[in-house]
Automatic annotation (TrEMBL):
Cellular component GO terms held in the UniProt record: acrosomal membrane
Lineage, broadest ranks: Eukaryota, Metazoa, Chordata, Craniata, Vertebrata
Entry-linked InterPro entries: SPACA1 (IPR037878)
Gene assigned in the entry: Spaca1
Tree of life domain: Eukaryota
The keyword DNA-binding appears for this protein: no
Organism: Mesembrinibis cayennensis
Membrane-crossing residue ranges in chain numbering: 138-162
Name of this chain's protein: SACA1 protein
Keyword Transmembrane helix (UniProt): yes
Keyword list, A-Z: Membrane, Transmembrane, Transmembrane helix
A GO BP entry: acrosome assembly
Amino acid sequence: GIGIREVLLTSGCPGTEAKCIVRVEECWGPVDCGWGIPISEGLDCMKMPCIYIPPENQFKYVWKMFIPNKSADVLPNDSAIMEVCRDTHSVTFQCETQENGNITASVKYTVYETTEMETKKSRRIATGQSRRATTDAILVFCLVTGIIVTVGVIFVMIFMILHW
């Protein structure tokens, strides 16, 4: 499929850089690019991009909608970016990028229903709070251990000074 890749150098970069870009090149790999990440995603709507390289108009874009237990519907949208709003059921979209009648890339997106997104968001918040509590406990443990070690070192230094 079409795409852009950065060729990185991990040693011999100028200055103190750990990585540096040697070149950016066009790559042609497998057609199925897997699952994409939306450009923008909110609770109500999201924007999904097809895979393309400039100029955008050199390709044809075919959007398909997959609803469980139904056949795929080809959508009239032929642009590189499609905006959809959430519905009462989850829907999977696929965009095929075509050049000269051949599919050069394909990417899929799942748009979850509104209630499922709210459930995922609340689950993420709950998980984040439990992680925060674990992180806080680890920080308190490290702080207490550091204080004990520091006090111990001070006592050892005082003992050494007095017996010298």
